């Protein structure tokens, strides 16, 4: 068999250690931030607006049932990932994640407008209030020093999803169309921040994803953005 990469690269991966050095490794612990919970129930009144935004197939999939992840299988794929080529190197050949894969797996659009916008967060709180009627209050100044201060800062920075759940989990039965739209917008923000564009903490809901939902029918290419973000994560 013709090797795709020089053997020296294999010595840096778990698969080599397990086979050649007979070292025993447990499957990797998978960072996973599911959304199937009573904390943010799906409301059928959101459907027309989610459909307009082009996110309906994905949100219907993850909001009803998030799949179980096979840790050994994911570990095996991670062992065959080569950052030198940004692809998986398998015994049968080289494999990459393509836009077609994203489209087939997620149902997200891969055509349309590129999801490009400023990440400048100046004035985000005022913009959020204008868009959804409220925003998290500023954390109180903390004069404590050392580890206690760091713990409090992490807690203050990690309340985004809790804040969303506390304020937008349930849309009132007698809600006006404007209120339903607001809840639908926040629901989409919650889902895409946890599934399509998560970070390692599983606690942050970046303002820019909510900003992308200012206009429902913007025709964003959510599939292209998802693939780009996946490869971005390889560098972080």
Automatic annotation (TrEMBL):
Domain Aminotransferase-like plant mobile, first and last residues per copy: 62-233
Signal peptide extent: none
Pfam family membership, one: PMD
A GO biological process held by the record: meristem maintenance
Protein name: Aminotransferase-like plant mobile domain-containing protein
Source organism: Triticum aestivum (Wheat)
